[in-house]
Amino acid sequence: MPVSHTNPSSPLWLFDLDNTLHDASHSIFPAISANMNVFIARVLGDGVTPATPEAVDAARLLYWKRYGATLLGMIRHHQVRAADFLEETHALGDLQQMIRTERGLKRLLRALPGRKILFTNAPTRYSTDVVRHLGLRRHFSHHVAIEDMHVHGQLRPKPSKLMMRRLLRKYGVSARRAILVEDTLANLRSAKQLGVRTVWITQYLRMSDPIGAAALPKMLKRPAYVDVKVKSLRQLAARLHRLR
């Protein structure tokens, strides 16, 4: 992706993808969730009979709460290869027909000063396809997907603070100069603990992750670790003063 040359004092924007730049809850997350259930049922089964839906749900919820990502639990407890999990769970049909987003997204991103990096726990192939369909590729100087989130040989996706520190060092910015734009509160909380400024996008929160409704916040009140809460990116430019 092209690198933009910006003022050294400009912010570095770290943009999440799913349920931040587009409505993954509409049909993409349900499809990923169904694929994930099939994959986990097979892994947890006895080699002949898949595990029950109850066993699958319990495992997904446990791993999500303990590790922040179902994938990490599958790797640590079931020796699953990350590449296999990501490929099978993100095997979707006509992706372009599944994508929903607000109008004027390119203009909204262009209005924000500073360099922008796509920073997603989704796999490279899927996130690249989504960004291409959204027509946003040129707006991001870099693309950091889950395959890029290894620290000391271990996968450390968001909300890993260790991985966030490494990312900030790699791009040569202090935490204070970075702004994370996300729908997932756990990721915003860990970033804020490092001093990163935080923006919470709420308009697509019907499903905050493929795990489903269990991951939704109980209420939409702005937590203390969120600097700016907006329903839509359309509101963000008008609230930049709150991030200074």
From TrEMBL:
Q: Which SUPFAM superfamilies match?
A: HAD-like
Q: What Pfam families does this protein's entry cite?
A: Hydrolase
User: Superkingdom of the source?
Assistant: Bacteria
Q: Check the record and name the PANTHER family matching this protein.
A: HALOACID DEHALOGENASE-LIKE HYDROLASE (PTHR12725)
Q: What is this protein called?
A: Pyrimidine 5'-nucleotidase
Q: Which organism is it from?
A: Massilia polaris
